[in-house]
Amino acid sequence: MTDRRFLLLALVLFAGAAQAQIYRWTDQNGNVHYSNQQPPKNVTATVVDPDAKAVAPAPQSIECYTVRCQGERMEERQRRRDADEAKVAAERQAIAAKAVRGLDFRNYLRIQRGMSEGELLGIAGEPDLKSDQGFAYAIPSNIGRGAQSGLRMVTYTYLPTSGDPFTSTITLVGGRVSELERIRKF
After folding, report:
1. Lower Cβ count inside 10 Å, N or C end of the chain?
2. What's residue 166's pLDDT?
3. pLDDT tens digits along 58-84
4. Domain containing residue 72
5. How far apart, in Å, are the Cα atoms of 115 and each of 45, 97, 121, 157, 171?
6. How far is 179 from 170, CA to CA, in rounded Å?
7. Which strands form 129-136's sheet, in the order they lie side by side?
8. Is the same domain home to 90 and 140?
């Protein structure tokens, strides 16, 4: 029975010695190092208690004096930094340029002069670029209304894609298709 007690006592003491220790030492350049690994043999190191306080803080102080407390604060700063980086990445994604859609040739053929802006958007979809050209003071009679003045002029541009290497430009005057242009870009 005595042997068992001795063995149990030896295991408890060994387990306490096996607990991780923190070493502190100063190198030849005057830099202070902390590590859980033993320092080089030619360096004198001291074992640091992770819960030890260098100076007792004032009761109202939020200062952190222990290695454990500083580690927890470092982890919190890292979490905030990661959250900030994720927020910035999301903002960049939101302002990033949209993918070019282009205009398929079959849909281009379905577009006709005089067609309304709603009909155009139903066939071609949203343009890659939209440019408000201001007002047209005299429009050609080919849109079916005769010459009018002061109508809004908008240009829709569909950029080339690898499947359709044409730039299609459609000009609307007064909400109706006025001009169509399709140019090969590559």
Report:
1. N
2. 92
3. 555 566 677 777 788 888 899 999 999
4. 20-95
5. 85, 29, 10, 16, 11
6. 6
7. 129-136, 151-158, 166-173, 176-184
8. no
